[in-house]
Amino acid sequence: MKGHVNTDIGEILIDNEVLAQYAGASAVECFGVVGMASINMKDGIVKLLKRDNLSHGVNVTIEDNKITIDLHIIVSYGVSISAVADNLISNVKYNVEEFSGIEVKKINIFVEGVRVID
């Protein structure tokens, strides 16, 4: 299902992939987030995604025109995961709601790995 916004002159439909790309771009801007993670289900291997594939580490579902976002991330070594998660949830929720005009009901964070940053 797509997100929709009703206006005076018609309806705007927003594809889940667009929301996923926006959420992924917002997530990688947050302190402590190295990037989005892609998981190879067959091998259980976690891979750091390049900037053009950010939406692959994001799953967006829409129910009753409310968005739920799952973010699979890789964090920097030495950061507080709870602080990173709180900041991430706050920033992504704000950015996606401002961008789409649709309420974000829930954001789930899945920390898939840790990387040492030089």
The rough form would be described as: elongated
**Computed Rg:** 15 Å
Oligomer: single chain
What is the strand tally? 7
Distance between the termini: 42 Å
Largest sheet: 5 strands, mixed
* CATH topology annotation: Alpha-Beta Plaits
Extract low-pLDDT stretches: none
**Mean pLDDT across all residues, rounded?**
85
Task: Give helix % range.
Answer: 25-40%
What structural category arises from helix and sheet content? alpha+beta
Number of helices: 2
Please describe the structure with a list of short key phrases separated by commas or semicolons:
118 residues; alpha+beta; Alpha-Beta Plaits; 5-stranded mixed sheet; two-stranded antiparallel ribbon; 7 strands; 28% helix; elongated
Structure description:
With 118 residues, this protein is α+β, with helices and mostly antiparallel strands. The protein has one domain: Cation efflux protein, cytoplasmic domain (Alpha-Beta Plaits), CATH 3.30.70.1350. 28% of the residues lie in helices and 43% in strands. The protein contains 2 helices and 7 strands; from the N terminus they run E-E-H-E-E-E-E-H-E. Strands 3, 4, 5, 6 and 7 form a 5-stranded mixed β-sheet that branches. It has a two-stranded antiparallel ribbon with strand order 1-2. Helix 2 links the parallel strand 6 (66-76) and strand 7. Helix 1 packs across helix 2. The chain is elongated.
